[in-house]
Design goal:
563 residues; six-stranded parallel beta sheet; 21 helices; binds thiamine diphosphate; binds magnesium ion
Length: 563
């Protein structure tokens, strides 16, 4: 992109859109508002370089921008209007924050001439988004647009990546300035020091049962390749943190499972009993540590090495023998170059993998539709470039446990646990990679949080296959309810629409499956449909997790209550 040395005056809105072009934006998501009409007009001029995808609710748009950021490593861009639009979009910003995803949310803002009067839909976004962004600011002067945009892009991708929010007062959007564009942003990352890497190798040389946990943001395809090569050279078993299972090709014998709530008890035992824990990129949050029970707070009992792109994260909860502040590509490249040593743990790695393979075998479930078998069927059928997305709910457990993610960004899921993520993430994935198959898993509750974006899939021809796992309830919450308050069902039942008919109303292919045996043919029809497709998968509500049933959970809770 040529840097414009413009003596011609441009409006704030034009400067903003020109800056997006400078920084390589090709896709943006949003819902229009009268608060940023001038930006819309500038986007009209740029329509051949930047495709502006219009969504049906800002939560959908913000989730799509977040998914774009996860997939590409470049900031996902989202435009929304003042108070109501910003409020709807907050869910995507929160997910970008928890998931360390680069993203920039632009919000139309009331003009400076009326600010602080609680003008129409006025909100101070610095206060509103303060805790869930890396940086939130308001651009009051047109001549400073290039500078603010440069800062926003650098901030979103550097160190621990995350979201930035920029408010755009109406008067700034139409004021003119003669100012030069900046250059394209460059990601800034820390590198591991030579002494760090030397010490890491020393610790490995003394270990007998080392275990690696990979996770977090800041990864790239080459970084994942380097990291896998490191694991192969040292024959290390690698677990992935919650919803970061695609950092390692799950078919590789070094992948040993995901470390999250509901993890394989044998893997949990290995995390507890390993003598060296190398955590790379993962924050070690509540879910990865199973409510901080898996690893001792604050001093893990095993030798503990933590590598993270954000210096703030190191030593935050866990004290370590070695804390390395580094970008993921920088660390993975250095790890791959470490001089090999003869591992003393070949059996340990092989057994950990065997534990995973046993854990991934299909299980018996109540009812005619068995989700473990269904996911196994998909695992055999889908090409390795397939992208699988999901939102939050117990339905996602089946996918996480029985699917084999095949490598970098074949999984898009919210570490934040945000319901409604899978549908918009699937659409964004298909828009970024039209040639790759995309499957979006949702629960019946989860789906209707952003189901209106089926209209966006139809409008832009995004041929996603949506799989709605319907058990007629907010199953996760029912499970906890039965465990803590057995037989006092309240607030967790759902009366659902006919999901297949709903898809057809949007002009998409839709059908319903109630037995495992019928899924394959339905999936073939969905695969061959000319449009996006939705398959409603009806499951027995008793089939609540691969490990247990609702009936068993209730019986256990009642037994404990009478004790
Ligand atoms: C936006 C949002 N609201 C509420 C929750 C709390 N929550 C977590 S799982 C869940 C139920 C999910 O229901 P469903 O999508 O039907 O999946 P199921 O658990 O039944 O498989 C709820 C309400 C959440 N995680 N995110
Ligand atoms: Mg449900």
């Amino acid at each position: 992109m040529k840097v414009t040395d413009s003596t011609l005056a441009r409006t704030g809105a034009q400067l903003l859109v020109d800056a997006l072009k400078v920084h390589g934006v090709d896709l943006a998501f949003g819902v229009p508002g009268e608060s940023y009409l001038a930006v819309l007009d500038a986007l009209h001029d740029a329509r051949n370089q930047i495709k502006f995808v219009i969504c049906r609710q800002e939560g959908g748009a913000a989730n799509m921008a977040e998914a774009y950021g996860k997939l590409t490593g470049r900031p996902g861009v989202c435009f929304v209007t003042r108070g109501p639009g910003a409020s709807n979009a907050a869910i995507g910003v929160h997910t970008a924050h928890q998931d360390s995803t680069p993203m920039i949310l632009f919000i139309g803002q009331v003009g400076n001439e009326v600010v602080e009067r609680e003008a129409f839909q006025e909100v101070d976004y610095r206060r509103m988004f303060g805790q869930m962004t890396k940086w939130v600011a308001q651009i009051d002067r047109a001549e400073r647009v290039p500078e603010y945009l440069s800062h926003a892009f650098h901030t979103a991708v550097s160190g621990r990546p995350g979201p930035v929010v920029l408010a755009l007062p109406e008067d700034m959007q139409v004021k003119t300035a003669s100012i030069t564009d900046t250059q394209r942003y460059k990601r800034v990352a820390a590198h591991p020091g030579e002494a760090d890497m030397h010490q890491l190798r020393e610790l490995l040389a003394k270990a007998n049962r080392p275990l690696v946990i990979a996770g977090g943001g800041d990864w790239s395809r080459p970084a994942c390749e380097d990291f896998l090569a490191f694991a192969q050279i040292f024959n290390l078993p690698i677990g992935c943190s919650f919803r970061a299972q695609d950092l390692i090709d799950n078919r590789d014998p070094h992948y040993v499972g995901d470390v999250a709530v509901g993890l394989n008890p044998k893997l949990a035992e290995r995390v507890k009993s390993c003598d060296m824990l190398l955590v790379v990129g993962a924050r070690l949050g509540e879910w990865t540590t199973v409510n901080y029970t898996l690893i001792d707070v604050p001093r893990p009992k095993q030798k503990f090495v933590h590598v993270h792109p954000g210096a703030d994260e190191l030593g935050r909860v866990y004290q370590g023998d070695l804390l390395i502040n580094s970008g993921m590509p920088e660390f993975a490249a250095a790890a791959r170059r470490l001089p090999p040593l003869k591992p003393a743990w070949d059996d340990w790695t092989r057994d950990a993998r065997a534990d995973l393979e046993a854990w991934q075998q299909p299980v018996k479930t109540p009812g005619r539709l068995n989700m473990s078998e269904l996911v196994h069927g998909l695992r055999k059928r889908l090409p390795p470039e397939t992208i699988i997305t999901n939102g939050a709910g117990n339905f996602s457990i089946w996918v996480h446990r029985f699917y084999q993610y095949t490598g970098f960004r074949t999984q898009l899921g919210p570490t934040s646990g945000a319901m409604g993520y899978g549908v918009p993430a699937g659409i964004a994935a298909k828009l970024v990679h039209p040639d790759r198959p995309v499957l979006a898993f949702a629960g019946d509750g989860d789906f209707l949080m952003t189901g209106q974006e089926l209209a966006t899939a139809a409008q832009y021809g995004a041929k996603v296959i949506f799989l709605v796992v319907n058990n007629g309830m907010y199953g996760t919450i029912r499970m906890h309810q039965e465990r803590d308050y057995p037989e006092r069902i309240y607030g967790t039942e759902l009366k659902n629409p006919d999901f297949a008919a709903l898809a057809r109303a949007y002009g998409l292919h839709g059908e319903t499956v109630e037995a495992t045996a019928d899924f394959e043919a339905a999936f073939d029809r969905a695969w061959n449909a000319k449009t996006a497709a939705l398959i409603e998968i009806k499951i027995d509500p008793d089939s609540i997790t691969p490990r247990t049933t609702l009936t068993a959970i209730r019986a256990e809770a009642l037994k404990n209550r009478t004790k």
